[in-house]
Structures are given as C-alpha cells and as structure tokens.
Design a protein that fits this description.
Helix content: under 10%
Structural class: mainly beta
Radius of gyration: 22 Å
CATH architecture of the largest domain: 6 Propeller
Number of domains: 2
CATH superfamily of the largest domain: TolB, C-terminal domain
Number of strands: 36
Amino acid sequence: MKSSVLLLVFLFGAFGFSYCQELDTNFGINGITIHTFSNVYTAQHQSCFLQNDGKILNTGYAYEGNYLATILVTRHLSDGTLDTSFDTDGALTFTYGQNFEEANSIVQLTNGKILVGGASFGNAVLAMLNNDGSFETGFGINGKRFITTGQGNGSKIEKILQQPDGKILVFGRAYNGNDFDFMISRINLDGNFDSSFGSNGIVLMPISNFHDFGMDAAFQSDGKIVVAGYSTSSQDSVSVIRLNLDGTIDTTFATNGKYNAVFGSSLNVINAVAIQSDDKIVLAGSVSGGAFSSIETLTIRLQANGQLDTTFNGNGFTTVDLRLNAQDNINDVVILSNGEIVIMGSSNLYSDFALLKFNSNGTISNGFGTNGRFFIPVGNAQNSWINEAILMPNNDLILCGLTVPELGDKGQFGLVKLTGLNLAKNNFEDRKPLKISSNPVSEFITIDVEDDFIGSELKLTNLQGQLVFQSNVVAVNQIIGVSELPSGIYLLSVQKDDKIFTHKIVKE
C-alpha cells in the first residue's frame, strides 16, 4: 500500500532504458536487512517512510496468538543499519494505552516530528514522536490522539499524508453503527481537528450498502484528494473517491465523485494508489473469481477525471498471475520516472518479496526480471512479503515488509534495496548544464547554468517530492535562498525540452 514518495517521479528524465536490476550489496548484508524484535511475539510490518535526511522509518505491530500486543518502530541509516540516535538502539516499542493495537502508517512531518497511525481497541489513533523517538507531549494527550469517529468497533487509520500547508490527513475506515465507511480526518499539528474540513474535521463516506474500507490515498496536482480501497457487499468491488480541499465530494470525478467497479466475481481488493505526473490514477490490488482460476494481481488506470483509461492495456486494467495458481497479494505501487509501473507484494507459493513491472501502456515489461517478474528470497521460511516501498531519487527501491528468517521462527521486519532500475546507459547529451558552486549549503545555493538554459524551469524538492522552490532560470549565475529550510537532502532540477538534469543538495 501507500508509497509516500511517488512525487519524485518528475525529477528524472528517462530515455532508452537498459535495466540490470540487482540487490545493492552496500545495503545490509548483500542487500537485505532483517531486524529481530523478539522471538516471543510475531512482528507484523506495515509501513515505511524516507526521512529528508535519508534515514528510513518502519512501523508495524506485534501480536501473540490473536492478541495485538505492542507498536513497533525502527529507524535505519541509509546503509540499512539501525540508527542508534533513535530510542538509543534504533528500535522503539510502545502502546497507545489500550490493547488490540495496530500501527499501519508512518511519516516524518515537515517540522521533523514523526507520526504513527493505526488503531487501539477499535478506535483510530495517532502517536507523535520527536526525532529521537521520545513522545511529543504537546500533541494530543502526552503525544497520543484518539480519533473517535463513527461508533468505534474497528475504526482504524491505514494511511497518513501531510498537506503542503502542514495540516495532517488520515485515511481509513470508521464504523457507522451498521457497517464501515471510508474515513478521512484532517487535524492540525497540535492534534486538534480542523473544523474547516468535512464535519468538524471528519468525513465518513459510504460507497456501497455494506463495508467500505479506505486503504490508501494520494494528492493530484491541484491538491484534490484521491482515496482508494474496496467495498464488500454481495460482491467485493473496487472503490475510489475524490474529495475537494474542504472534504466535500468532488462530483466531477467518475460518477458523482465515486468510482465503483467489479472485475472478478468474488475478490476485488485495492490496497494501493499512485498518481502519475499527468494526474492519471494507478490502482493496485488483487482479483479472483469468474475467469480467474487463482488470486491474481489487479492493476487499473483511471484518467484524471476518474474514468477508465483505455490506453492502458487496451481496456484500462490488467490482471497477471505472478506464479501459476498462486495466491497473489499486492500491497504497493510506484511509478518510475519513465512512466513504468511497479506493483509489489507476495506470491504465496514461496518465501519471496515479489515485484511485477509494466510498461506505461500496461503491457508487461519483459526486460525486468523474468517476464516482468522479480522475486527476492528474504529469510528461509514460508512467509515473506512487501508491504510498502520507497522510490529513491535515482529510481532505486527500498522494499519493506515482513519475513520469517527461519522455519519455526516468528515474523520480523525485512528491508531490501533493489538497484539498477534506472539508466544503465542513457542518451542524454554529454553535458552538465547545472553546476553548484559549493555543497553542502547553509544560506544560499549558487547555481551556474549554460546560456541556452535561461528560461528553463528550475525546481527544488525534498526527498518526499514536496516542492520547496520553483522558478525559471533568469541568469547564468543564479542564487536561491535556503536559510529557512530544514537541514537535509534536497534535489535541484532544471528542465529543458524533454530532458531533466538534477543535482543533490545537502542543506546544513
């Protein structure tokens, strides 16, 4: 589900790709990091996030039998090792204060705080941490905020996003007294509801006449909010809505603001959504029943207005078996800089992280792995799967999920770094029009460009893809003030025609 750095896709132009994907041996041990919390309980990984300084956050929860015991958070350095500046050993455990608890999404906010969202005893809940792993006591009550939407009884957060203005959006489900609805809430940085959004900060949106589960969300370029998931009535169905900035339904999207469709006769589940640079919407999940002899992958592309995009595989969707007669479960989707689409999760016949890559038109990218499929053994037991991925600025992928290291062991957090997805060789002109006079920087970025790049578009983004500066090149020597930006890594790009040149900036 849920890739929070998909907005990075515009940064890198891609022409004439030649792939040689492989594990990055500089990450962990031969490209793989496994963190063992305990052999007493099973660790269930759910979400990861790339901080602006390049560190990697992960969260999930632990359970013993059917009892959800505690919340788990790790922070890793860029080489996969634990960051001991976080909770002294890089691994934090805590509870929201109840039981039957989950953590399903984690983000670092623009103010440097870390937000974890999930569920506690049937209610949606958030916890805010400082950068060192301690609780931010100014948020909610002692760093924790319960969002008692609907009637409790299974309400939970599946995804957290931060708006450019700093306000926080959470997505998931809430019980309305009879069944579950999509739940969207907007809160301020102090944990209080934003009363300008929905009804006192909360939107409950029914899709079908039974359970509706909001699983993932993303912003289109105009700031409108796309929420995706699935509905369970007499038949499962794919469900997507679009909200205006104030939380009202955008009736110009699909049919009166809602897209609802069936592809298989028994299972139609969407766990992930990504927005392309042209605002088209890519949905990923699983399908079964009818013409499908097993649980297969399901990938759908909608036009920006919510109608099926028939330029994608000729009909707007594609279903593919990762392995013959296996049960395929897809949890996340990312869009590479050349428009190619990677979906990922598991194929349950083997203990592998599983990926499948499509060309931008929906056909399988046969240059990737074997017939578009790439499997990574992680651990030696029956269960391993990807829950979420981080798309790096150079198109490397950090794959985060669950693994059972040895037969009979408990589940643990597993991270894999896959490299070689971007250009092995490209047809860019042999030129470097973008030069930085000094790096790292503290107050100013001084840029030198070639004469013919005057008038070209110049952008500065953080590692989450958020735009922090944009202008046109006005002189061969140009200065950008960055003194108010937080310390971290940024990407400076200049675009001319169909080519984009980038430079990494380190802000002290």
